[in-house]
Specification:
heterodimer; A: 263 residues; mainly alpha; B: 355 residues; alpha+beta; Rossmann fold; 6-stranded mixed β-sheet; 5-stranded antiparallel β-sheet; 8 helices
Chain lengths: 263, 355
């Protein structure tokens, strides 16, 4: 029996239009910098701006460090909770959701109060200290995504048996995590990493209130003062985010394959 | 041969209020192949995991080659283990899987490669170094797991139901390979299984376990032919239970379905007219009367099962229904249901078992 697909297609088209129309309009507007012609002048203007290059590079570096710190904190935490303290999992689920509930503005005010230049741990007393604080703030902000990505990755492998097999072969905990667990959940870890990176690249609140030269505050500043460049930057940001999401899909194809067979 | 290479003394494991291993003692000689046999939940896997170091004993001690390993971490025990679910590292190829323990031990790359090649030859998979686990069959993966376990030359090999996840045919061939490799290397091996046929076919000695206790420890033929308890007799192989009534304890006679029978090992304290249960293996019963058999009984064929090389005949003897196994003789047809049948046995094969 041939099914009538009109209504599903209509709903899909309306949903797609909701996202695509503003995007197409933004893109079309970004091409109108030169009167009477479509051109990429606004993009050229953005890319030639030294502040764009500086803030973007800064955010990329901060993003990379946030990804590394996140992996070093989240992977062992998820591993030991799943292996030794499974009763803590509901607590971990709740804890890692907190960054979605607590607004970034509250998080950053808390940091400033705790780590100001006259506190015991004066992170904000130096530029490097503030950068470190910013990295850990991003680790916290990305925690809901990285925790879930890593947790899902560990669910797909039998970590207890793999751990025992490595232990009986003489490996210690660091060797097991580094040589067995991490490579087997690498795709999940990289998914979390790209999500973290996508969040860090456009984040405004924390970077702005910690007064760091990041890409988010730059986007806001351009948006407030220019006409065509903000549209170009919005498209560039979308492409970067989509690129990160696309990489997650690509990496999914390299996930470890199951070897459970009875023959 | 000194029987003290592996010594387990008073080994106990308690989870909350449940004691799953109850003060188990045994010791084995170097090079022995030992099976821990029992149903699910009898504590056999827990004992193996305590030997491996994955579980901490509540009480008792484990010694290997004179060294007390009870409190050592698994990575300090120098043991090898094969798991039911293969547990090959999916990110490593066969060569790296087998060489993993050697790499951890700091064996140079050149020597490692040579040892991996030797191991692959031993398990019959030469040239498989660069394959990944997902590219291999279950039997091949388990052979690689065996090679990984023995490559670092451990003091002892632990096998945790390594054949359970495999097809029946592969299971039989692989268990023979495991036994051949174990004999070649002379490595002391502890094998956990719930399959009595597996345990009987490859072990030097078997520990039959039930509810956290050892029911019997002995060579396969001892376990099968002289079961110490009713549990061992029923768990290992098929067993007929026959209701009998004691007629004359002094003459060691009973009646089975109204027919008089002499029981060689009737307990001295048996009381006249008391009901008792005798047991007998199906394969010691024969169809027809035989000069070598001193007990002959007549009954009716209740059922006939054709099992290929063996035919199992169910015989009704009064209230009793007993099974008899006879080879499939292609020259004669099996008996029909409802036919009268004469069976015979030797009275010493009738067992009176402790509970």
């Amino acid at each position: 029996m041939k099914q009538n697909r009109f209504w599903p297609w209509l709903v899909f088209s309306l949903g797609a239009a909701y996202f695509i129309v503003p995007l197409v309009a933004t893109f079309e507007f970004s091409l109108r910098m030169r009167r009477g012609y479509y051109s990429f002048d606004s993009y050229a203007s953005v890319f030639s701006d030294p502040t764009f290059q500086a803030t973007f590079s800064y955010s990329v570096v901060i993003g990379i460090f946030a990804v590394i710190a996140g992996i070093l904190i989240v992977v062992p935490a998820v591993y030991f909770v799943r292996l030794r303290l499974p009763k803590l999992r509901p607590f971990m689920e709740f804890l890692t959701l907190l960054p979605l509930i607590i607004p970034a503005i509250i998080l950053v005010y808390g940091y400033i109060r705790l780590y100001n230049s006259s506190s015991i741990i004066p992170f904000t007393g130096s530029a490097l200290g503030t950068d470190v604080l910013l990295i850990f703030a991003y680790v916290a902000l990305a925690l809901p995504y990285t925790y879930r990505a890593v947790d899902t990755g560990m669910r797909t492998i039998d970590i207890q048996t793999l751990t025992e097999a490595a232990q009986i072969a003489g490996a210690n905990s660091a060797q097991i995590i580094g040589q067995i667990i991490l490579p087997n959940i690498l795709v999940a870890v990289l998914s979390g990493a790209f999500l973290t990176f996508a969040i860090v690249i456009g984040e405004f609140t924390i970077a702005s209130l910690l007064n760091r030269p990041a890409f988010g505050p730059y986007l806001q500043n351009i948006g407030a003062n220019r006409a065509y460049e903000p549209a170009a930057l919005a498209i560039i940001s979308f492409i970067l985010t989509w690129g990160a999401m696309g990489m997650i899909n690509v990496l999914g194809r390299f996930a470890p394959r199951t070897s459970a067979r009875t023959d | 041969m000194a029987s003290d290479f592996l010594t387990v003394a008073g080994l106990t494991k308690t989870y909350g209020t449940t004691t799953v291993v109850k003060g188990v003692d045994f010791s084995f000689a170097k090079g022995e192949f030992i099976s821990l046999l029992g149903p699910s939940g009898c504590g056999k896997t827990t004992i193996l995991r305590m030997i491996a170091g994955f579980e901490t004993p509540t009480a008792g001690s484990i010694k290997v080659d004179g060294q007390d390993i009870t409190t050592l971490k698994p990575n300090q025990r120098q043991l090898g283990m094969v798991f039911q679910a293969y547990a090959l590292f999916p990110n490593l190829n066969v060569g790296d899987n087998i060489g993993f323990g050697l790499k951890i031990a700091g064996v140079p790359a050149e020597e490692r490669r040579a040892r991996v090649a030797d191991m692959l030859k031993l398990i019959g998979l030469p040239g498989y170094e660069s394959r990944y686990p997902y590219e291999m069959s279950g039997g091949q993966q388990q052979r690689v797991a065996l090679a990984r376990a023995i490559a670092p030359r451990p003091r002892m090999l632990l096998l945790d139901e390594p054949l359970s996840a495999l097809d029946a045919k592969i299971r039989v061939s692989l268990r023979e390979e495991i036994r051949a490799i174990q004999r070649e290397l002379g490595i002391t091996t502890v094998f956990v299984t719930h399959d009595q046929e597996e345990a009987l076919s490859i072990s030097d000695r078997i520990v039959v376990m039930n509810a956290g206790n050892i029911e019997q420890l002995g060579a396969p033929h001892e376990i099968y032919n002289q079961p110490a308890t009713r549990f061992v007799a029923t768990f290992v192989g098929h067993l007929n239970n026959i209701d009998a009534i004691v007629t004359d304890p002094a003459a060691r006679t009973v009646t089975i379905g109204g027919q008089p029978v002499t029981v060689a090992n009737l307990p001295a304290n048996a009381v006249p007219n008391a009901h008792m249960v005798l047991t007998v293996r199906p394969e010691v019963l024969a169809v027809g009367a035989h000069p070598a058999s001193d007990v002959t009984l007549t009954g009716t064929v209740a059922d006939v099962s054709f099992l290929g090389s063996v035919i199992r005949i169910r015989v009704a003897l009064g209230e009793n229904l007993i099974s008899l196994d006879t080879f499939n003789d292609q020259r004669s047809a099996p008996p029909l249901r409802g036919e009268p049948i004469t069976i015979s046995l030797t009275s010493k094969d009738l067992l009176v078992l402790a509970n």
